[in-house]
Amino acid sequence: MVDIFERLEKNAGGPIGMYMGYAHGYFAFPKLEGEIGPHMTFRGQKMLNWSLNNYLGLANHPEVREADAKGAAEFGMAAPMGARMMSGQTKYHEQLERELAEFVGKPDAFLLNFGYQGMISIIDCLLTPRDVVVYDAEAHACIIDGLRMHKGKRFVYGHNDMASLRLQLKHATELAEQQNGGVLVITEGVFGMKGDLGKLDEIVAMKKDFNFRLLVDDAHGFGTMGPHGRGTAAHFGVVDGVDVLFNTFAKSMAGIGAFVCGPRWLINLLRYNMRSQLYAKSLPMPMVIGALKRLDLIRKHPEYQEKLWEITRALQGGLKENGFEIGVTQSPVTPVYMKGGIPEATNLIVDLREKHNLFCSVVVYPVIPKGEIILRLIPTAAHTLDDVKFTIEAFKAIRNKLESGFYRDKPMPMKADEGFSVR
Fold first, then answer.
1. Is 62-300 CATH 3.40.50.2300?
2. For residue 27, what are the contacts with CB-CB under 8 A and spacing of at least 6?
3. Which of 39, 70, 162, 371 is 20 to 30 A from 289 (CA-CA)?
4. In percent, how much of the chain has pLDDT > 90?
5. By the 8 A CB rule, do 289 and 256 touch?
6. In the chain, % of residues over pLDDT 70
7. Is the bond preceding 80 in cis, omega lying within 30 degrees of 0?
8. How confident is the model at residue 303 (pLDDT cuts 50, 70, 90)?
9. Best CA proximity match to 354, nearest among 17, 44, 15
C-alpha cells in the first residue's frame, strides 16, 4: 500500500512544480504591484507590462472603479446570500443576463461564478453517456477537464483542420446513431495561445452535411472581435449557427464571472441543472453591478476596441517587419516564437525584466514541445505606440543574444522568492 503523501512528495510538484525551487515568485506566481495597466512594478522595478488580458483597458477605468466601489458600499461582498435558486436571485443578476444576451445576439443568458468551472459544468449538463463529442485539439484546459467528466465517447480533430473535423464527424455520427445519442462539436472563438480564430463559419456550414450542435468558448473574442466587440461568431456572421455560446468576464470585462447563452429553453435547463451553480453561492452583488457598468462602457465606447486594434496592428506589424515569427494570430493575442530550452528561456526572461524593464509571459515545455519558446504579448487599449516601439527594440536585443548562444551558456538563474521553501 502506498501512502498518498509520500507519493505526492516524491513527485516533487509535477512537470511544472518541479521547478518551483527557483521559479516561485519570478517565473511562476510573480507579484505585479501597483495600478493595473501597461506599467506596473515587479520586485521594486517599473515594468512595461504585456501580460494582462485587460484588452479594453477597463480594469482601472474611473467609471468602473466607481461602480465597483459603490456596489461594495451599498451591498457589501456578502450579498446576495445563498445560491441563485434558493435565496441568491436579484433583479440586477436578471438585468445583467438580459443585457448580455441582447449584446451577443442570443435569446437568453445565464450568469456563472467562474469561467473555468462554468465550462466544465456546461459540458457535464449537456451530455449523456450516449452522446459523442468532437473537439479541437487545442481546446482550452477547461474544455478538456469538462470532457474528462463525460462518460461517453469523444473524438479530437486536428487544430482548425476542417478535413480532420469532417472525418471525425463521420465517425461520431456513425457511433451516435448506433447508440441513439447526439453529437456535440466544441471549439473556441479565439485560441488563447496562438491567437488564431476558430473557423466558425466553416464549422457552421458543415451542419448541412451532419447533424450536430455547436458549443463555442469565446473567452478571448468577447469585446475584441466582431462589430462593437460582440464576439467571434458576430465577426463571422454566424451567431445563429452557434447553439451554445460561452464568454468570460476575466478578459475584456476585467472582472470575475462568466455567462452562457443560447435558446431560452436551454438556458432554463442549465439554470435548473448546472451543479456548479445550483450548489454555489450567487455571484456577489459588487461584481454584478461592476459588470453592468463594464458592459455599458463596451456598448457606448467602440473607440476602446478601435484603440486595441490600433495597438495590435502596430505591435504585430512591427514584429513581422523586424523578422519575428508570430504565427497565424488573427486576434490581439500575440505569440512570439523563438528556439531554445528552459535555460535559454529563463535567462532570456531575466534579461527582459532586469535589463529592459519589460514583463511578458513565457511558455515552455511541457506546455509546448521541447526546444521551443513562446513569449506571449497581450496588447490592450491602454498601451501606446511608444510602448510598441520600446518592446520591439528590446526584443531585437534579446534575439541577438539568443542566437549568439549567450543565454545557453549562462547558468540557470535562481530567482525564487527569498525564504520560499518547497518543504
1. no
2. 19, 346, 349, 362, 415
3. 39
4. 85
5. no
6. 97
7. yes
8. very high
9. 44
Query: Could you tell me where in the chain the CATH 3.90.1150.10 domains are found?
Result: 4-55+302-404
Model confidence, pTM: 0.94
Q: Is 257 helix (H, G, I), strand (E, B) or coil?
A: coil
396 Cβ contact partners less than 8 Å away, ≥ 6 residues apart: 322
Q: CA separation (Å) from 379 to 181, 346, 383, 384, 418?
A: 43, 22, 7, 9, 32
* Pair 184, 153: CB distance under 8 Å: no
d(CA 268, CA 265): 5
Residue 25 in 3-state DSSP?
coil
Q: Where in the chain is the domain with CATH 3.40.640.10?
A: 62-300
Q: What is the pLDDT of residues 106-162, one digit of tens each?
A: 999 999 999 999 999 999 999 999 999 999 999 999 999 999 999 999 999 999 999
Strand-strand pairing, 183-188 and 213-217 = parallel
423 band by pLDDT with thresholds 50, 70 and 90: low
Identity of the residue numbered 217: D
Within 279-409, residue ranges assigned H as helices are 285-300, 302-321, 342-355, 385-404
What DSSP designation does 366 have? T
Instruction: Report how far residue 305's alpha carbon sits from residue 261's, in angstroms, rounded to the nearest whole number.
Output: 22
SS3 content of the chain, % helix, strand, coil (to 5): 45, 15, 40
Rounded Cα–Cα distance for residues 200 and 128 (Å):
25
Q: Within a 13 Å sphere around the CA of 311, how many CA atoms are in the beta-carbon half? A: 28
Cell triple for residue 403?
542566437
**Nearest Cα residue to 55 out of 293, 232, 230, 220:** 220
Contact 287, 90 (CB under 8 A): no
- Grid cell in block for residue 416: 525564487
Q: Which residue has the cell 486576434?
A: 331
Q: Quick one: fold of 4-55+302-404?
A: Aspartate Aminotransferase, domain 1 (3.90.1150)
Average pLDDT on 197-223 reads 98
* Cα–Cα distance for residue pair 60/294, rounded to 1 Å: 11
Pairing of strands 108-112, 258-262: antiparallel
CB contact at 8 A, 382 and 40? no
Q: How many residues does the chain have?
A: 423
DSSP state of 164: H
Q: What is the mean pLDDT of the chain?
A: 94
**Can you read off the three cell numbers belonging to residue 142?**
477547461
